Amino acid sequence: MSSEGAKGVRVIQAGPLAMIEDGGRMGVRHLGVTQSGAADWVSLYWANWLLGNAPDTAALEIVVGGGLTLEIERATRLAWVGADLDARLDDAPITPGSSFTVREGQRLVFSQPRDGLRGYLAFPGGLAAPEVLGSRSTTPREQLGGLHGDGQPLKAGDRLAWRGEPGEERRIPAGLLPLMPRPGCRLALIPGAQIAEFTGASLYAAFNSVWQVDDRADRMGVRLRGPRLESRVGSMISEGIPLGAVQVPPDGQPIVLLNDRQTIGGYPRLGALSPLAAARLAQCLPGQEVRLVAVARERALADYRGFLRNF
Fold it and tell me: Alpha-carbon dihedral of residues 306, 307, 308, 309, nearest 10 degrees?
């Protein structure tokens, strides 16, 4: 829905990329439609938890900040989790990982990233937007979802409305607050697909080298810079691509595919990052150093289930 006549939050200035995202558009990849959804789904889940929402409820994903300015038109309580984008409510700083009360007439401004890349602003009951193929997530490449259903980020003049009232006030338990990745952060990778086709020297380099996040990174994928990896597989028949898939094109530099990835691909793969590792990578700024760590599928699944038990 457009929400043009609804009282809630009005966009005064649009940042470079602020979009409505939820848990993603599942069960439609056979139609060629990508998953989409929050890139750092861990932070989305906690932001919604703070307000008593279902974990995958639609919220606002804000990348970089860049001066995004929202004017409050109706008092409520919001939650902010993820990157530190120097968020301020009438010049009072908002700490990531907390909920806070807003009053009519106040302005919420997001500036430049101090720590991390993406933050999630949750609203009581979730943001009102049309559901497209089972999700409200914004997917610009496919022109699906978002506030107006056309896959476009927020723009000045847009109005956001929410669909409920906040639950009782909560605090994220000590030790569970999502921390932004540090240089050399370890990303769990589940080996699979064509990993046996890579040379021994390449496999050693893949898991014993420091990789740098390239500036060619978006919601579709993140390119890593480092040693050149070589595979004995040339062209191959395209196959389905999961979240976190680590493809290696002919230049030997891995590309980790994220939420807005294509549904099929024909490059050899080392395997895939675990869902938790994919969320961590989504918070890495260009130039940040990361390491790939091979883990068993059972270990990654146990970690994933352990995280979900918090909800």
Answer: 50
9-59 confidence digits (pLDDT tens): 999 999 889 999 999 999 999 999 999 999 999 999 999 999 999 999 999
Query: How far apart are alpha carbons 119 and 228 in whole angstroms?
Result: 33
The sheet with strand 98-102 has its strands ordered as 17-21, 59-63, 115-122, 76-84, 98-102
CA distance 90 to 111: 13
For the chain, state the CA radius of gyration.
20
Instruction: Name the helix (H) or strand (E) containing 228.
Output: none
Convert the pLDDT of each residue in 231-268 to its tens digit: 998 778 999 999 999 999 999 999 999 999 999 999 99
**Tokens 């956001």 correspond to what residue?**
160
User: Which DSSP state fits 142?
Assistant: G
